[in-house]
Amino acid sequence: METTNIDVQLIEKKDSDFLVFRFDEDLEIDLNNSDQSQLRTIFYKIVQYLFESKIEFTLTYPDYNKQIYIEVAQDYLDQLEVELDSIYEKLPNLE
User: Fold this and answer.
1) 36-80 tens-digit pLDDT
2) What is the pairing mode between strands 54-60 and 3-13?
3) 3-state class of 84 per DSSP?
């Protein structure tokens, strides 16, 4: 069973905190903004990968030191992996 690793980086820029999903192109979620319209694009991309393989996320946070955001981001990604594994197991074999 193949697994795709998606790198996710927690960064601060312009006084905001972002989760950056490293796909072919970087997609960001601004954690300090109530407008989360970018989530749809990110989830669409994740679902595309899910049809090919299981997904794992690797969180990195170079030069980032807000511990609460680090913990919340890691918990979020861990839970997302669990949910995606459940969905993956239910997908029909498309081969």
Assistant:
1) 889 999 999 999 999 889 999 999 999 999 999 999 999 999 999
2) parallel
3) helix
Query: What residues contact 41, with CB distance under 8 A and at least 6 apart?
Result: 27
DSSP string over 76-87: HHHHHHHHHHHH
The token pair that represents 20 in the structure block: 């950056």
Task: Give the tokens for residue 50.
Answer: 């899910």
- 40 by Cβ neighbours in 10 Å (0-12 / 13-18 / 19+) ranks as exposed
Instruction: Give the Cα separation of 72 and 25 in Å (integer).
Output: 24
How many Å is the maximal CA-CA distance in the chain? 47
Cα–Cα dist 84/76, whole Å: 12
Extents of the domains making up the chain: 3-90
